[in-house]
Amino acid sequence: MTMPSRPRAARRGRLRRLTAAAAALASLAALAACAGPPRNASGIDYALSAATPRAKGDIDSFTWALYAEPPTLDYTVAFDYPQNMVLSNVCESLMRWTPGLTTEPGLAREASHPDPTTWVYDLRAGVRFHDGGTMTADDVVFSLDRQRDPDNAAAWAQIFQNVTSIRKTGPLQVTVRLKKPDSQFPQYMATAAGVVASEAGVRAAGKDYGTSGGLACTGPFSLGAWHKGQSIELDRFDGYWGRRAKSGKVIFRFLPDASARTNALLSGEADGSYLIPTESYARLRGSGVGELYFGEGLSTVNVAVTSTRGALGDPRVRRALSLALDRTGFVQVGLGGAGTPTGALTTAAAWAGAPERTRKRAFAGLRPGAPDIKRARKLVEEAGATGKPLTIATSSVGQDVSLLATAVQAAGTRIGLDIRLKSIAPNAFTALFTDPGARKGIDMFPLTYYGSITDPLDLLVNFKTGAYLNFAGHSDKTYDRLVDRAGAVDDPRRRLALEATIHRRAARDLLWIPVAEWPTAVFLNKRITGAPTTISYMYQPWAAGVGAAR
Q1: Could you give the CA distance from residue 431 to residue 90 in angstroms, rounded to a whole number?
Q2: For 82-103, how does the pLDDT look when each residue is reduced to its tens digit (9 = 90+)?
Q3: How many Cβ atoms from other residues are within 10 Å of residue 186's Cβ?
Q4: Nearest to 547 by CA among 99, 243, 247, 244
Q5: DSSP secondary structure of 448-469
Q6: Any idea which fold 72-207 has?
Q7: Domain 296-520 falls in which CATH fold?
């Protein structure tokens, strides 16, 4: 945040932030004193559902509330909620994530694995791009190679680090060869990493691709009008190869203010939304305007360490903050009671394919207890960090972000650290994930991580040397070797056994401090239905199923 130029004004701003923090802390402390399941504090009695009811007919259009405007819709940098929530309906991948969080064929009708370092994708015939062309193997090679091009600064580049070649081996066949076995690569072909766009369309757009004009993709919707700062419209693509979308148009409205999003849902200005402000759960559920659903999110709420140059460079300080955090209070207030406190980096659902023995080993000793202030303060003193300043980013993007930052500040205050808040605008908050410059002067920030595949290694690879989300630049060669070993194992049971060891090592290092598991929330008014409840909306054309509820 740019601070006021006058010292007096700066001091007033600091006092306002401290006053707000104190009020939030009082709420957290009061709630923490109340024993019982998290949902009881907010009145939310939630259960996970597999889906919303199927649509009964077509509609002309529906409007969806989005908390931030995507900076671009270029699939190579689609690494956050706003981009993927829109893009998943326009651009499709070789494989597809299902609402049940499994993988099925997408633009590739079949994927085969003839040897440990080769994947062959046989493509669907007759798939049309929005710009009028027909998909070929050349388009696939071009699209995947864009992810590997260092000039693109692709968010998905690490997925392709083991790739030696991507070649056309038939008019509708592409063969990918790897340096070494890689169990993760085929799974990521169901995410934005596997998107296919028209080579001619992308080249014609040049540097403007993703920010204006079309996206030259194949999905059930094409990119329509983009009113910068206001909305993005998607238009039904009648040349779609799959099932026709039930709505003729989707309008995504950018509503950064959480209250404005909630009011838009209550008034009917917006028909639905994912990423519901947690403070609005009870209000929306009791409104009679529509239904609030919860589904599997593969999502964890964390405090991401972005710099280890200061006090957080000592693992004892990171451990102290973890010990001092009031996770239960945060879940009750910050997540509206819909969530589970956790000391683990991954969700339990990410281990669904693991034997019970492996799951127990992965989570042993990671169940969080009540804050241990005495032990945490001692660790800070041993590290010589008492009174040391640290900065955490906060934002009005949602109560989950702002109250977690406040909870961290409270924990730090109780154990002798000087933790300061730095406010980031909602539209700029997403840059913390992708731009090192945006993280300058920040030691940590609230991070909700969603699994892009149903495999714990999806998260655990982020702490490998040089990984895209290894914000602090941490390097542990033993950890790197363990990740490489697990990634080379195709057999899920053997791989998950290795991942249990990696999980515990990552928990020891605490480069992200885990706080809670968080389900996906979706609100639909009485006019529409058909949206999935799970995090699958990030990588499959969820809006195509949304239609009339009656």
Answers
A1: 23
A2: 999 999 999 999 999 999 999 9
A3: 19
A4: 247
A5: EEE-SSSSTHHHHGGGSTT-TT
A6: Dipeptide-binding Protein; domain 1 (3.90.76)
A7: Dipeptide-binding Protein; domain 3 (3.10.105)
